[in-house]
Amino acid sequence: MITKTCNNCKNQYIYDSSNRWTQFINTIGKIRKYDSAAYCSGKCAGEDAKRKLHGKGVQDKAKDTIERVYGDRVFSRSKIVRDRIQRTCEERYGTKTPLQNREIRQKTYESNVNNRGGTYHLQTDPVLEKNWATKRTDEYREFQRSLAEKQGFVDISRKACLEKYGVNNFFGRPDLLREKLEERYGISNIREREGVSEKAAETRRLSKAVNVGEFNEEVFRSKFVIDNMFELEGCATYYNITIKSASHFKKKFGITENNRYTRKTLEKSVYDYICSDLEFQEEVVRNDRSVINPLELDLYVPSKNIAIEINGDYWHSEQANPDKTRHQRKSQLCENKGIRLIHVWEHEWLSDVDSYRIKKMLRKILSPDSPKVLYGRKCVVKEISQNEFDSLASENHLLGTTKCPVRLGLYFGEELVACQGYRRHERFEWELARYVNADYAILGGAEKMFDHFLSIYNPKSCVSYVDFSKFYGKVDLKMGFNYIRTTEPTNSWVMNGERLDRRTARYRYQRELSWKDYETWMLKNAFKIWDSGKKVMVWTKPT
């Protein structure tokens, strides 16, 4: 036995080469390439090795190696690594990340509930109390706030801008600002970014508002929250602002009560958009009862065989009318008459994203400047990336984008004019999850992409679900799909202008409530609405 001094903690210890624990430490030392005899324990050896590895010279050498191999000094930021991870996830799970896979996400939620007592690990009380990163972030933000209050910080900031950019303020260099915008967002002017121009216009409208000094939560609650309902129209009239402005301030002040609307206001808004914004010159009949008597069509365009039903969130909810098949029944009556009925919900029309997509759909159908006609035979079908698919689908599809392992794009020259996304299905082999076209009427485009899919992947069956509240599935029939049935209406929840499907609502609000208590609580705090169901369209390989 020999007495030695530990290189890490500097304490004296007895080194016995015959001891089994010492032999184990020696074995680990050979693997990790350090002299195990120079440390009193594996912990000290590990701490000393970690300290040496974090030296600047070692770090720089490691970063140089990572940059040479992967093209970036940060491993996780490398495009090669990110693409490789994405390809692996798409091959294994059919999604961009593992947690986007429904089965893995569900398993993660269940494990968190069983092991940690919460759906999300970071939301549990023990983790929030011990999470040093959260505490550190809060401390850092508090430090920033206190620093910004000192005038000296402003002077330092101006001096730094003067030395770096030659001006007191970065915005005094429009050339650099344009470079940053092009690098980050691909635009040269901030107004080109989606939503900025609308916000600027809204600010100009607010400058004409009256009673501006009363823009606070206390006044909003005392004047406009009546019987647990928010009088949105009354608020807009009182301040002389738009409905959208009133909705914005309601959200800003944290008022969660649901809106009380009159159907006429929404109906007039949609009517004005069709007749004024789209400059539609043909007849638009309001409140027609002659077509599907005794039921009423809010807006009816006889020349196009198009009808629009305006659904207020409250008056078309289960709380106001428990008949869950009312919307499906009305859609079916219109289809029997050869009329396409489009249901437009209050929360959709007031949402910036949803209203943009719906207005774009109405523009394609009703605008006198009909979309440019393209022919599928003059287009080329190619495989496209998920980013290209997301870009087209998020702007032109009512449901936005989704993850699909098979993505086909239709190109007219160099321009992507349409795309289709396919994914695996539990019952059928494949599902046509998305069909999206841009601002064109493409004759034969959907059929050409589907024929390409059949020739490459040789499926035995494929299913498509058509939203019966807005579409009737004519495109699917042209592609060779057969109508099987219409599903029962599905319910969802509307809370404070946001639509939540059943699964999202349960994950967000059920937590410690039983199913019965959860349903009761949701009926008091949200509107339960029912859609028109979905048309199930199936293609099967000919025998």
Please describe what this structure looks like.
- This protein has 543 residues and is an alpha+beta fold.
- It folds into five domains: 2-54, no CATH class; 150-192, no CATH class; 196-259, no CATH class; 263-366, VSR Endonuclease (Endonuclease, Chain A, 3-Layer(aba) Sandwich); 372-540, Gcn5-related N-acetyltransferase (GNAT) (Aminopeptidase, 3-Layer(aba) Sandwich).
- The chain has 22 helices and 21 strands.
- A seven-stranded mixed β-sheet has the order 11-12-13-14-16-21-17.
- Helix 12 packs across helix 13.
- It is globular, with a radius of gyration of 31 Å.
- The mean pLDDT is 80.
Summarize the structure.
This protein is of the alpha+beta class and 543 residues long.
Write the layout of secondary structure elements.
Elements: E1 2-5, E2 12-15, H1 20-32, H2 42-53, H3 56-70, H4 79-93, H5 102-116, H6 125-130, H7 132-148, H8 151-165, H9 174-184, H10 196-206, H11 217-224, E3 225-226, E4 229-230, H12 232-239, H13 243-252, E5 258-259, H14 263-277, E6 285-288, E7 297-301, E8 306-311, H15 326-336, E9 340-345, H16 346-350, H17 352-366, E10 372-375, E11 380-383, H18 386-396, E12 406-412, E13 415-424, E14 430-437, E15 440-443, H19 445-457, E16 461-467, H20 474-478, E17 482-486, E18 491-495, E19 498-500, H21 502-509, H22 515-525, E20 527-530, E21 534-540
Parallel strand pairs: 4-5, 8-9, 10-15, 14-16
Antiparallel strand pairs: 1-2, 3-4, 6-7, 7-8, 11-12, 12-13, 13-14, 16-21, 17-21, 18-19, 18-20
Helix pairs in contact: 12-13
